[in-house]
Structures are given as C-alpha cells and as structure tokens.
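Table S2 (continued). Query chain:
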Amino acid sequence: MKVLLNHYVFYNPWVSTRHGMRTAPTFVGALLGMLACMQTSVVYAAGLYDREWEFRQPVTIAGGMIEGELTNFPVLIQITNANNHIFGQAQPNGNDIVFTASDRTTKLSHEIQHYADTGTNALIAWVKVPLLPAGVDTTLYLYYGNAAAPDQQAVADVWADGFGAVWHMNELLARDSTSNAYHFISTSSGSTAFLAQSGKIGSAVMFNGDGNISAGSPPLLNMGPNKNLTVSFWFNVPNPCGGASVRMLNRGMANNSSTGFGVWSGAGACSPRCGYGTGSIRKFTAIADNTYADETWHYVTAVFDRQGDMTLYMNDGTDFKSYDMSADADLNLSTTSALQMGGTSSTTGGWLIGKIDEARICRTIRNEAWRLACYRNQGDPSAWITLGPERPCRPPGTFITVR
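Corresponding output:
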C-alpha cells in the first residue's frame, strides 16, 4: 500500500485491503489518527502565491526607519546568513526567487544584483515597493524553490520611476540597470582601475589615480532649462584621494569653460563639492576640507533643483551645503560631453584614488525622506529588514490518497 500525504510518500508493506485481510475503514481511521499526530510537527503556509513554489519567508521592513511616505521605492534586501534555507533551495542563479506584497499574491518587481549559493552564500536584491508609510512596518514575502520557473526578475520596472541611470558597479565597465542602458563602455588609456570585491553593496570599482571609465554621451542625463537632477553614490577614499580637483562623477565639467555638471573633490583636499557651469558661469558648493578622506564608506547626494537650491548632502544629510541656483533656471546646461567616473585628464582635473559604489542619476528631485531612506537602507540593510521563519508552501489541511 502507498499513501500520499501532501506530496510525501509513505509505504506500508504489511497492510492490504484485499480479501478482507484488514478492513479499509479500520485502517483509514487508524491512519488518520496517526497522521493527525504527525502533522503537529509541520507548519503549513497559508494564502499561497503559487503552489509551484516550495517555500516562503516573511520580510518585514521597519517603519521606524522611514521619515516620510515613499512610493515605488527600491528596497535593498540583503541576506548573508549562510544558514538561511534559501541557499540550496532556490535555483543556483536565483531565477525562481519571487517577492510579493503582504497579500502573498501581488508580485513585486525585483532585480537580483548578486546571488550565490556556493562558497560565500549571499543574496543582494532590489525590490520595488509601491508604498512605504512612515512609522508603520511593511511585510513582504520572499518565495523560492521552483526548479522549473523561468527568470522572475523585472529589472527595468524596478528603476522606472524617475531614474535616469543606476550602476551597481558589479563590473569594471558598470552596466546601467534602467531601460536607458547607459552602460559604461570604455576605460581611459593607461587606466589600471579594477573591480574590487569589498564594495559597500557587493563589489565596487577601484580607481588607482591613473584613469577613468566613460559612459559615452547619454542624451537623457542632461540639465536643459528647468530640468532637475539628483546624483548619488558611495565613495571610499584615502587622503590624498588623487591629483588636483578630482571629478568623481562628471558630465562636461572637465575644465573652466565647458558645460555640464558634476560631483568632485577639492584640489588635493578631498572635500566633496558639486557644481554646474557653462562658458564663464561656474557655480559650486562645498563641504569642509578633509572631512571624508578616511578610507571608510560615505554617501553623497547632489540635488540640482533649478527652481531652488543646488544642495550637497553627506551621509544622513546632517552635513550639507546649498547654493541658490534659481537665477540660472533657464540656463541650458545640456552637453554632448562624455559622462565620466573616476576623474579627468584635464590640467584642472585629476584622477581619483579610491572606490565608488551604487551610483545613480535621477531625473527628478529626491526629497529628504527619500534621501534618508536610501542612506539608511543601503548603509545598514539588516536594520531595515527582518526575516521571519520559513514556511513550506503547501495547502493547509491533510490530503490523503490511498492506492
């Protein structure tokens, strides 16, 4: 006799219902009693997303880390506990990983930046959450364990709301995760920049003071009249961090007469600053010298609000500097110059020494709640999310087939 219990198979070699050797009602009654006892050790998930998935874990986002309501916010979910059951149960490339809303049914768009279930187990994923209220916890669900599932990612949709380019720095020539596909495509002659594994979030690009990388001339990453931008990235630099005035992420600001915008460090001092210009018009704002050249990771955000201020924020925004740029709202800062990271060869520029990770250019103004959420979530993902216990994705109740 073979008994199927929720896809688990039990054999009983000594029981047969043929020729009345043992009556079926007596056997089934005894079996049901036995299975009722067995099931007390199994906790079944309720409200399945899809019965083809084997397991799920709840993911709780701490509302106390959020200062203002956020919409369509890409949340960094990072799992580095090698004992988490996802490693070895999901597909080796993580293609079957799914995130849902709290209803366990609505699928959320996500991108897997990194997944490894051999060696150093790790998952780095970005999940687009439609609404994150301030002060209220939000629960998502992580599903995995479907060997037949195709790739479940929806990368472009994660970065569809106001993002011009997003570079996770997973490669030396970093790829843009948005649908714009503004990938870095070349390194400067003589550059020994390389991909470092010790990034802020996964890997990072290490610049050695002898070259940069270029993304060509992306048309949407420009500041035409009344066009706003928000630029952000993590950096880790020594002191000194390079040559003269090092352009960390720059578009057309290589010298004192070109058009564009950029984020750079002060001449030899590694004081973060941002600015814009065209022709003889050159405007910038700066943070105090030497404050951040300490070989630890720091988060910089430059907001170019054409109707208000150009503001440079460091880390949580406590340290910031602003410049009123509203008088230049109609100034055309568009350029065909290359977008570069790691410095310039200009005599007024220089090459960067240090690492850059998770760089973004948004074609909109990111407010304080958004900027602070990015800093907190990327700076310490474990403080943002809590993983609950794994549950098997099987229908509640006991289903028995006797053959």
